[in-house]
Design brief:
This protein is mostly helical and 129 residues long. It folds into 2 domains: 60 residues, Arc Repressor Mutant, subunit A (Orthogonal Bundle); 37 residues. The protein is 60% helix and 9% strand. The protein contains 6 helices and 2 strands, in the order H-H-H-E-E-H-H-H. It has a two-stranded antiparallel ribbon with strand order 1-2. The two termini are 37 Å apart. The relative contact order is 0.11.
Length: 129
């Protein structure tokens, strides 16, 4: 599933992922920007139409919850970014992230372990050079 979120939609989804099922006022209270109730409701309804959010009625209010996992949205966003700005190359994206970031030795070590584990899972990956 390709998940495309605007910045505002991503902010609302982050509240639902962090807090779990929430009513509109709870989402609104946990957003970084002060937004009108109706604006937050509109974003939630748009997300629901896209299939990213669902709700359950609780009396007169609706409690909204994420219908997609955060990891799925992250993977989709990275695929989109790599495709649009890095000619579809995960290697170019990774190279840019590493060269532009001030990584701690611990972060570098974790990245090396992840790359080694990925290589171990796919024996067809051979070192070039």
């Amino acid at each position: 599933m390709d998940i495309a979120l605007t910045d505002r939609e991503a902010d609302v989804m982050q509240v639902l992922w962090d807090r779990g099922p929430s009513v509109v006022t709870e989402v609104r209270d946990h957003l970084g920007d002060p937004l009108a109730y109706t604006t937050v409701l509109t974003v939630l309804r748009t997300l629901e139409l896209k299939g990213y959010v669902s709700h359950k009625a609780e009396g007169r209010v609706h409690r909204y919850y994420a219908a997609v996992q955060q990891q799925a949205a992250q993977r989709s966003a990275l695929r989109h970014l790599a495709g649009k700005l890095f000619s579809g190359s995960a290697e170019l994206l990774f190279t840019h992230l590493v060269s532009d970031s001030k990584l701690t030795p611990e972060q570098i070590s974790r990245m090396r372990r992840m790359l080694a584990a990925k290589k171990a899972k796919d024996p067809s990956n051979k070192d070039e050079g």
